[in-house]
Amino acid sequence: MKPIRHLAAFTGVALLLVSGWSSAARAQAPSAKSPSSLIETGCGYTPSEAPAAPAYPQRESREVQGHFRLASVRERNWDDDSDRAAIVGLWKIKFVSKGNTGIGIPDGAPIDDGYATWHSDGTEIMNSGRPPITSSFCMGVWKKAGRSSYKLNHFALSWDPTGKTLIGPANIKEEIVLDGTENSYSGTFTIDQYDTEGHLLAHISGLVSAKRITAD
C-alpha cells in the first residue's frame, strides 16, 4: 500500500492526516493558523509535530496504563482448542473509514492496508502499510467471542515522520466474524491515539476486512 494523505480538521482539538482520496487533497497544506497536525494512518497516527500541550485532556495516563494490566489465566478465556482456532494464520487486511464524516473523513476512505498474523497462543502481530520510520509493526491479543467471531485488542507506538519524537500509544480494537469458508473475515475497528501522557488525541472508526494467505 502506498500511504495517501489528506488534511482534515478534528473540530479544533486534534487533527488527523488520514488517507487522501484525490491529488488535490494530497497537495493540500496546513494553514499557519490552523491547529491541525499531520498524522499518518496505519498502526496509529503520526503528527508532523508533537503537540506542545495535551490536545484533548480527557484521560489521565493511569487510565491508559490500565489497558496494559496483566490478565490472569482465568481472564484469558480462550478455547481449550485455540491452537486449532480458525482465525489462526496469515491474513491480507484492509481498513476503510466509516462514521468519520464529522471530522472530514468520507466513508470508504482507505485507512490502512497490510498483513496480520493471528497466533494460536492468542497473540497477533501486524505489518502496517505506514512508513516504517513512524513504526509500522504493532501487536495485539485476541479471544474468541462466539462460534465464528473474535475480538482483538491491539497496541502500536506512533512516532513523528522523522522517527525521533514519540507521539504516544495507539489502541486499535477489532470485532470480526469469519465467513463460512474460514478464508476471509470482516468486521469493525476503532483507533484511539494518545499522547505520551495518556491524553486522547484522536478517535477514528471503520470497517476491516481480510483474506487468508496460504502456503499454496
Q: Structural class of the helix and strand makeup?
A: mainly beta
Helix percent reads under 10%
Treating each run of at least 4 consecutive H or I residues as one helix, how many helices?
3
Q: Approximately how much beta-strand content do the residues carry?
A: 35-45%
Low-pLDDT residue intervals, each spanning 5 or more residues: 1-40, 46-63, 70-80
Q: What is the strand tally?
A: 10
Shape: globular
> What does the largest sheet look like?
8 strands, antiparallel, barrel
Strand order of the largest sheet: 3-4-5-6-7-8-9-10
Elements, N to C (H/E):
EEHHHEEEEEEEE
Mean pLDDT: 74
Cα Rg: 17 Å
Distance between the terminal alpha carbons, to the nearest Å? 23 Å
Give a short overview.
The protein is mostly beta strands and 216 residues long.
Commentary on this structure:
This protein is mainly beta and 216 residues long. The chain has helices at 23-27, 61-65, 73-76; strands at residues 6-8, 16-18, 89-97, 110-118, 123-127, 137-144, 149-159, 166-178, 184-194, 200-213. Strands 3-4-5-6-7-8-9-10 form an 8-stranded antiparallel barrel. A two-stranded antiparallel sheet has the order 1-2. The model is unreliable at 1-40, 46-63 and 70-80 (pLDDT under 50).
Name a few traits of the molecule:
10 strands, two-stranded antiparallel sheet, globular, 216 residues
Q: What's the layout of helices and strands?
A:
Blueprint lengths: L5 E3 L7 E3 L4 H5 L33 H5 L7 H4 L12 E9 L12 E9 L4 E5 L9 E8 L4 E11 L6 E13 L5 E11 L5 E14 L3
Antiparallel strand pairs: 1-2, 3-4, 3-10, 4-5, 5-6, 6-7, 7-8, 8-9, 9-10
